[in-house]
């Protein structure tokens, strides 16, 4: 019997419309004449979904008794007996009731497929086995029901039912997903905007990987070797050298430029195992690749370039990153173009990036002006050219020359001398001139095979021959010196530009300048010491006191110590530039520190001014009222009636209570800002603290709606401080809640954090002003002086952070402000460190 086809509708979260889409497709197929039945569908009370199921044949469910409770499950036997062409099966990852024919619904689906029945099913990305731990990290929720990846990947067709995260939240807030009593908890926990965005990306990337695997299978089955660059896939070649980290990071940046870019690192080892590489370095680079979200691979091949390109083609790579060769010019000239050129030739339509690195060109150093203009290597090459070129020219002239070709012979040797002069300078040229002159006289001038000059003209010619060679070599030497001077000037300009840039960059300028100075002047070690003896920056080997050169920096502000080389006059001049820039960098650092201190003083002064204003204004009112009431009692004596006496006493009592609260708040905010708030963390019941805060404010069911999670674990908190936080937040929420509305308090858990949410439906606060409300003495435009000093929220945030938590504002769906108090759940670690402490 032909196996049925499986079609999976994949969603990022509940409510995106998978079941609706499945039913809509079932109706379309039925209208086209196909035999379609609903094996099982869960509408979850959604009216629109239930409406889509109308008109489709439904296989009755089977009742299964479990622990005395009758539960409904898909009747697999009935569906097999009915044997429709297409069966609609909702929630592929569902776990069946114990006692069912199969433990999992996906096993039921496998039986339907084996029976030749096509199945359309739904599943959310959080139920895919390989993504379960990732989803838990994102949402903090452990998914108990999972389906193996192989089951979903084996589907003949996988479709993502997509919905923008904010649209899903809007659908949820409108009551289209969950009943009203579950909306706030869902929006504040699993259905957060960040959670939904991450889940959406996870679903799309998982499907992209599946599509990529299917594409690779198709290319393999059809023998297609060319790259189909459906996505950016960057392969980085690692040799085991220290430049690998640079290449990996460059490859990661290239891959990150496009959505879904993939990073792969590969190391080619030889079949005989003789190719050298550093295992420890490769292990570190592998860890770096994996930390950047890439994968590490190792292949074996005798020809690294061919093996590298073959690997890149096998993974359908679009770009290949290799390092520039670490070989010198002479080695490259003797051994050929190298791996880079071969990779470029073989790569075809794969883009190749050759990345420069520190190991390729060596460290930055200024070209030396002292010494010969040409390097020792060039002079040696000049002598080699003279020794090799002389015999070669002689053999060619002897085999092709005649008695009348003396002029040609002389010009040929002259050309050799010029070539040697261009290569090695004056001394190899003089050597070539003398050697070629002797050879010319010995082989081509009568009498032959003797070094005898019978004609004085020949002697003059030989002298002129040598002079010409010397003049040419002098020209070459001067050109080399000018070239070196130009390169020196360019290097100095580059260094000065770098030094200036280091100063402009700010904080890292001083160590950058010290490092650059050591490299530029070829020193073994450099360090910068402050006037008090502390080391501000160091680079290279430790500076030895017996071989150091010390230069003052910034009028004795510091001393620059150099070790490991003698500097000429031009280098001393350039070093003065570095010292001046170091002085500027140190001055900039001092100015930044001074500015920071001034900023802190200004902030303190602002708080002090506000405090004085509060003392002079807000404290005066209750103090004056209390003094007036008590003065009235004293002056009137027994002439007051009982009602007047009671009213004065109540006024004095209320004013003194208000004064006590204000003074307490002032002291608390001072302790918070000074960082000396005493906090005693203990396992705390959130519900109990919420009820105590309500009792303190005398708020009842008419004022507050409670949605407390009965399974919420104990919090790691100071119950006294937590009560103060809730009292302050509730007071604000109650003040701005419209008449007829109730403040809502909800508790929930998100991973290792518990949240207490105080939700109002008032006017809310604009996002750009939310941080202002946590500043001391801020009422955000409230001119009611009876509202206090504006310290409540500042204290509340300080108390929450002192307990290791946070206090953050959020928008309330439908309008208003939600204040979220997040605190860690009490655990072994939290309880171990829960003794009395002070906030840092």
TrEMBL record:
For this protein, the record's Pfam families field holds:
DUF4118, HATPase_c, HisKA, KdpD, Usp
Which CDD domains does this UniProt record tie to the protein? HATPase (cd00075), HisKA (cd00082)
Which segments constitute the Histidine kinase domain?
Answer: 614-827
Q: Which domain of life is it from?
A: Bacteria
Its localization reads: Cell membrane; Membrane
What reaction is this protein's catalytic activity?
ATP + protein L-histidine = ADP + protein N-phospho-L-histidine
E.C. no: 2.7.13.3
**What does the record say about its membrane topology?**
Multi-pass membrane protein
Alphabetical UniProt keywords: ATP-binding, Kinase, Membrane, Nucleotide-binding, Phosphoprotein, Transferase, Transmembrane, Transmembrane helix, Two-component regulatory system
Regions crossing the membrane: 380-399, 411-444, 456-476
Question: Which SMART domains does the UniProt record give?
Answer: HATPase_c (SM00387), HisKA (SM00388)
Q: What is this protein called?
A: histidine kinase
């Amino acid at each position: 019997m032909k196996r049925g086809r499986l079609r999976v509708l994949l969603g990022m979260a509940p409510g995106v419309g998978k079941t609706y889409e499945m039913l809509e497709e079932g109706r379309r197929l039925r209208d086209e004449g196909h035999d379609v039945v609903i094996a099982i569908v869960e509408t979850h009370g959604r009216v629109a979904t239930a409406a889509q199921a109308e008109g489709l044949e439904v296989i009755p469910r089977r009742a299964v008794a479990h622990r005395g409770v009758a539960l409904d499950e898909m009747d697999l036997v009935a569906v097999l007996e009915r044997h429709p062409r297409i069966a609609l099966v909702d929630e592929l990852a569902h776990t069946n009731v114990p006692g069912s024919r199969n433990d999992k619904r996906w096993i039921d689906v496998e039986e339907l497929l084996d029976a030749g029945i096509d199945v359309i099913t739904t599943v959310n990305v959080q139920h895919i086995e390989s993504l379960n731990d990732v989803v838990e990290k994102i949402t903090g929720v452990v998914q108990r029901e999972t389906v193996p990846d192989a089951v979903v990947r084996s589907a003949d067709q996988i479709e993502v039912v997509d919905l923008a995260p904010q649209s899903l939240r809007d659908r949820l807030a409108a009551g289209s997903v969950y009943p009203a009593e579950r909306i706030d908890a869902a929006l504040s926990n699993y259905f957060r905007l960040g959670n939904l965005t991450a889940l959406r990306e996870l679903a799309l990337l998982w499907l992209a990987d599946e599509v990529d695997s299917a594409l690779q299978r198709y290319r393999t089955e059809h023998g297609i070797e060319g790259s189909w660059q459906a996505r950016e896939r960057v392969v980085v070649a690692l040799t085991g050298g220290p430049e690998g980290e640079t290449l990996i990071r460059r490859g990661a940046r290239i891959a990150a430029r496009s959505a879904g870019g993939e990073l792969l690192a590969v190391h080619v080892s030889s079949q005989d195992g003789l190719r050298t590489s550093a295992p420890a370095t490769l292990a570190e680079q592998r860890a770096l690749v994996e930390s950047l979200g890439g994968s590490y691979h190792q292949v074996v091949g005798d020809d690294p370039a061919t093996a590298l390109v073959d690997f890149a083609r096998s993974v359908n790579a679009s770009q290949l990153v290799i390092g520039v060769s670490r070989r010198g010019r002479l080695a490259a000239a003797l051994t050929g173009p190298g791996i880079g050129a071969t990779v470029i030739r073989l790569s075809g339509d794969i883009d190749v990036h050759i990345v420069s690195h520190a190991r390729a060109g060596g460290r930055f150093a200024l070209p030396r002006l002292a010494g010969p203009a040409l390097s020792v290597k060039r002079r040696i090459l000049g002598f080699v050219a003279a020794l090799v070129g002389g015999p070669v020219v002689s053999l060619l002239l002897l085999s092709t020359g005649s008695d009348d070709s003396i002029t040609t012979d002389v010009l040929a040797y002259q050309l050799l001398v010029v070539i040697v002069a261009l290569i090695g300078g004056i001394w190899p040229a003089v050597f070539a001139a003398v050697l070629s002159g002797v050879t010319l006289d010995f082989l081509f001038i009568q009498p032959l095979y003797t070094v005898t000059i019978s004609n004085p003209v020949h002697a003059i010619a030989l002298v002129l021959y040598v002079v010409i060679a010397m003049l040419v070599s002098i020209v070459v030497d001067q050109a080399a010196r000018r070239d070196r001077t130009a390169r020196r000037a360019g290097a100095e300009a580059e260094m000065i530009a770098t030094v200036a840039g280091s100063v402009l960059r700010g904080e890292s300028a001083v160590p950058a300048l010290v490092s650059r100075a050591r490299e530029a002047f070829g020193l073994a070690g450099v360090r910068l010491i402050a006037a008090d003896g502390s080391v501000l920056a160091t680079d290279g080997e430790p500076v030895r006191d017996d071989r150091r050169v010390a230069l003052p920096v910034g009028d004795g502000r510091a001393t620059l110590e150099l070790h490991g080389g003698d500097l000429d006059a031009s280098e001393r001049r350039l070093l003065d530039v570095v010292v001046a820039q170091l002085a500027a960098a140190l001055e900039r650092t001092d100015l930044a520190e001074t500015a920071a201190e001034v900023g802190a003083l200004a902030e303190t002064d602002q708080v002090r001014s506000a405090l004085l204003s509060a003392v002079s204004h807000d404290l005066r009112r209750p103090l004056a009222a209390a003094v007036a009431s008590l003065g009235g009692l004293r002056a009137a004596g027994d002439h007051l009636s009982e009602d007047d006496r009671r009213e004065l006493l109540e006024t004095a009592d209320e004013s003194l209570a208000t004064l006590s609260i204000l003074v307490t708040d002032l002291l608390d905010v001072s302790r918070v800002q000074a960082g000396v708030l005493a906090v005693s963390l203990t396992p705390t019941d959130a519900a109990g603290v919420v009820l105590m805060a309500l009792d303190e404010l005398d708020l009842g069911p008419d004022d507050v709606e409670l949605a407390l999670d009965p399974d919420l674990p104990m919090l790691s908190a100071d119950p006294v401080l937590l009560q103060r936080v809730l009292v302050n937040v509730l007071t604000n929420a109650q003040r701005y809640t419209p008449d007829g509305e109730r403040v809502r308090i909800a508790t929930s858990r998100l991973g290792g954090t518990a949240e207490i949410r105080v939700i109002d439906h008032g006017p809310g606060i604009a996002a750009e002003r939310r941080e202002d409300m946590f500043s001391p003495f801020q009422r955000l435009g409230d001119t009611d002086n009876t509202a206090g000093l504006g310290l409540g929220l500042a204290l509340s945030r300080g108390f929450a952070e002192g307990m290791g938590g946070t206090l953050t504002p959020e928008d309330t769906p439908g309008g208003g402000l939600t204040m979220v108090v997040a605190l860690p759940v009490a655990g072994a670690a939290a309880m171990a460190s829960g003794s009395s402490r002070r906030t840092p």
